[in-house]
Amino acid sequence: MVLNHATSNDLRPLAPLDILDRLEHYRASPLPTSSQRAPGTRRSDLHSHFAPGDAAATAVAVTAAFRVLRAENIRCAARAAQWLTDRVVASGRPLHPANVVTLGGTISIALEAALRCSRETKLMPVARLRHRTAVDSTRPPANRDSRACALPTALWPEWTSLISPSHPSGKPVAQSTNSSPSPTCWLATARSRFIDVQTWLDLQRRLRSNPSLDAVHAQRWLFHTLTGSPAHLAQPDIAPATPVQRQQYQRFRWRILPPEAELLHRTAQNLLEEHTIDEPVQWAPRLPARALHDLALPGPDTDSISVAQLHQAVPGGDFSIAQLAHTSNTTTAHVTYLLSKHPVDWSPPRFRRTQHTATRVGQWRIWYEHDRLSLQAIADREEASLATVRLALLKNGTELRPAGSQQGRQRRR
User: Fold this and answer.
1) Higher local confidence (pLDDT), 95 or 362
2) 152 phi and psi, to 5 degrees?
3) How far is Cα of residue 32 from the mean position of the Cα atoms in its chain?
4) How far apart are CA 193 and CA 222, in angstroms?
5) 3-state DSSP call for residue 21?
6) CB of 96 within 8 A of CB of 124?
7) Helix or strand holding residue 26 (H, E)
8) Are 368 and 361 spatial neighbours (Cβ–Cβ below 8 Å)?
């Protein structure tokens, strides 16, 4: 750095004029080809990249370095090196705390800290905090990627919705968060089975006209919710391994029907209770409205769409999350969050009636067999057709009475 960036005026306090003249002659002369690593790799700072081949240059460079290295502390070393880092910036080379280590070869942690601190007066407050220049830190900032990888990634999606930016055009950004907030717990990291498969499949057969005879998405959802980590980090037996599988799981998340959501949440709560974990399945901190009143946040407020508006916007039958976000004039992340909190019965009207019949047929059988109500009376009470009641009872294994027979009345002969 000294040989390449220091001016003659900077170096005058360091050595006699004859030594400085020899240094200037050395700096003005091109380096021999043998000192270059490979043809075509000549750099503008080769004089500082290699050990100098002139005794005068070595003496001046070492003297300048000692003024920094012999400083009492990091702050003093930073002041001693500031003139040099200022010269680097003046030469047109971008210099910020994160890349000071590229100015030369391997340097000590203390010298790296001093060079970072030498740029303090040029930094924004947030950069001062991150690089800890105000406390003379001798450590570089923590690796953000490694720290992020160690944290759950599915926490507080309503906060994510608030701070996620929109497209410059003003249209919502088509993006989604990972999952609803949940407590991080060790019990889920090595498991591949969280819910009884048969219980889940029985519910699927009752709720869906085309049920998926596989409980793997339910297992993934429970891992995702209990750990706050994406499903691909689950135990290999259930983790989605391909982009297609991940996409299928994301689709499963926002197409969960209300009874399925109830079973999943009840299962998650039971798992926590079995391990004496006194925590809710889902939780996120809530800020009072006045705390956000003066903040211009880029994302939509999670409460800007009511449950009634959401349910009204969901069409009967299959639908696209992107289409629903477009209809609601919000982001896919916002819609996914709302559907996770308030599942919608998106089944077609005809299949909804079938689901209703399946849930009511047990009561109909009691009325028919024990209370001796007629098929027509049951149909009138339930606002259903006579054919619907008759067919449901037959499928339920109910033995129907002859037409016209009633308790206490003898049949005509």
Assistant:
1) 362
2) -60, 140
3) 53
4) 9
5) helix
6) no
7) helix 17-28
8) no
CA-based nearest residue to 328, from 313, 348, 312, 317: 313
| C-alpha to C-alpha distance for 140 and 136, rounded to whole angstroms | 11
For CA atoms 132, 138, 141, 146, the dihedral sign is negative
Given the structure tokens 């819609």, which residue do they identify? 335
Assigned token pair, 49 = 């990249």
Mind spelling out the 3-state secondary structure of 232-258? HHCCCCCCCCCHHHHHHHHHHHHCCCH
3-state secondary structure at position 132: coil
pTM: 0.54
CA 289 remoteness from chain centre: 24
* Six token digits for residue 358: 């399946």
Angle at 23 between CA 22 and CA 25, to 5 degrees: 65
Closest to 341 (Cα-Cα) out of 303, 315, 298, 312 = 303
| 329-359 tens-digit pLDDT | 888 888 888 998 899 888 766 666 776 777 7
In angstroms, what is the C-alpha Rg of the chain?
Answer: 36
Residues 234, 220: contact at Cβ < 8 Å? yes
Decide if 375 contacts 386 (C-beta within 8 A).
yes
CA distance 223 to 241: 15
**Locate tokens 């500031």: which residue?**
82
Confidence of residue 104 (pLDDT cuts 50, 70, 90): low
> Cα–Cα distance between 398 and 92 in angstroms, integer?
89
> Residue 88 is encoded by which pair of tokens?
């680097």
* Among the listed residues 206, 230, 207, 211, the one whose alpha carbon sits nearest the alpha carbon of residue 155: 230
Report helix, strand and coil shares of the chain as percent, to nearest 5. Answer: 55, 0, 45
Q: What is the DSSP string of 308-363?
A: HHHHHHSPSS---HHHHHHHTTS-HHHHHHHHHHS----S-HHHHHHHHHHHHHHH
Burial group, residue 39, by CB count within 10 angstroms (0-12, 13-18, 19+): exposed
What pLDDT is attached to residue 170? 46
The C-alpha atoms of residue 405 and residue 389 are separated, in whole angstroms, by 17
| Cα-based distances in Å from 303 to 37, 79, 162, 165, 257 | 62, 52, 10, 17, 21
* Cβ atoms within 10 Å of 198's Cβ, excluding its own: 9
Task: List CB contacts of 204: < 8 A, sequence separation 6 or more.
Answer: 211, 212, 213, 260
Amino acid at 139: R
Of the candidates 252, 139, 240, 152, which has an alpha carbon nearest to the alpha carbon of residue 200? 252
